[in-house]
C-alpha cells in the first residue's frame, strides 16, 4: 500500500478522529505494513498486546481464547482497528485473530502511538474524552443487563 492510501484508511477510523492529516501521515509513515496468508495468525489469545492492527484488505476472524479453532466470534474487514486498547495500555490479547484469505494490515506499535500522544497532548485529551464516553455507555448497558437479571430473580 502507498502512504497516501494508508492515510486515507486511517482517516476513516473513529479511534483516530483527533489526528489531523499531517499527524496521520506521520503515524502511517512510522507504522508497519504487514501481509498474512489464509489461516495465518495475526496474534493468539494470551499474547502480549503491544500494537493495534488496521485491516487494509481482506477479512480477519476473531476466535474465543477458549476455542481458537471453533467458529469465530466475529469476522472483521477493511477499515477495522483490532486491538485499539493495546495502543494505550499494556495487556494480553483476549482473542486469536486469523486471516481469512489474504490480508493486508497496518500495524501500529504502542510505543509509536504513545509517543504521538506525548508530542500532541490535544490528541490525548480528545481520545480520553471519547474513551470515557464509551466506558459510560458500556457501564449503562451492563447496568441494564443487571436490572433485567435482577428482575428475573424476583420471578
Give structural notes.
This protein is of the alpha+beta class and 155 residues long. Strands 1, 2, 4, 5, 6 and 8 form a 6-stranded antiparallel sheet that branches. A two-stranded antiparallel ribbon has the order 3-7. It contains 4 helices and 8 strands. Helix content is 40%, strand content 30%. The protein has 2 domains: 117 residues, Sandwich (Jelly Rolls); 36 residues.
Detail the topology: elements first, then pairings:
Layout: H1 3-11, H2 21-30, E1 32-36, E2 41-43, E3 48-49, E4 51-64, E5 74-76, E6 81-82, E7 91-92, E8 95-109, H3 110-119, H4 121-153
Antiparallel strand pairs: 1-8, 2-8, 3-7, 4-5, 4-6, 4-8
Helix pairs in contact: 1-2, 3-4
- Tell me the fraction of residues in β-strands, as a range: 25-35%
Name given to the CATH architecture of the largest domain = Sandwich
Order of helices and strands: HHEEEEEEEEHH
Count of DSSP strands: 8
Q: What count of helical segments does DSSP give?
A: 4
Query: What is the general shape?
Result: globular
Structural class: alpha+beta
Q: What would you give as the CATH superfamily of the largest domain? A: Jelly Rolls
What is the CA-CA span between the terminal residues?
58 Å
Number of domains: 2
Question: Mean pLDDT, nearest integer?
Answer: 92
Low-confidence parts = none
The CATH topology of the largest domain corresponds to Jelly Rolls
Helix proportion range: 40-55%
Radius of gyration over all CA atoms, rounded: 17 Å
Main sheet characteristics: 6 strands, antiparallel
* CATH C-level class of the largest domain: Mainly Beta
Amino acid at each position: 500500500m502507498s502512504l497516501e492510501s494508508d492515510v486515507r484508511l486511517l482517516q476513516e477510523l473513529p479511534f483516530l478522529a483527533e489526528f489531523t492529516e499531517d499527524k496521520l501521515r506521520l503515524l502511517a509513515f512510522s507504522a508497519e505494513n504487514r501481509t498474512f496468508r489464509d489461516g495465518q495468525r495475526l496474534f493468539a489469545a494470551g499474547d502480549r498486546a503491544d500494537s493495534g492492527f488496521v485491516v487494509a484488505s481482506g477479512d480477519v476472524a476473531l476466535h474465543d481464547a477458549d476455542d481458537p479453532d471453533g467458529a469465530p466470534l466475529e469476522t472483521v474487514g477493511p477499515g477495522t482497528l483490532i486491538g485499539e486498547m493495546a495502543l494505550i495500555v499494556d495487556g494480553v490479547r483476549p482473542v486469536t485473530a486469523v486471516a481469512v484469505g489474504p490480508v493486508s494490515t497496518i500495524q501500529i506499535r504502542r510505543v509509536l502511538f504513545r509517543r504521538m500522544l506525548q508530542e500532541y497532548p490535544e490528541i490525548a485529551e480528545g481520545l480520553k474524552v471519547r474513551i470515557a464516553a464509551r466506558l459510560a455507555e458500556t457501564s449503562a448497558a451492563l447496568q441494564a443487563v443487571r436490572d433485567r437479571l435482577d428482575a428475573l430473580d424476583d420471578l
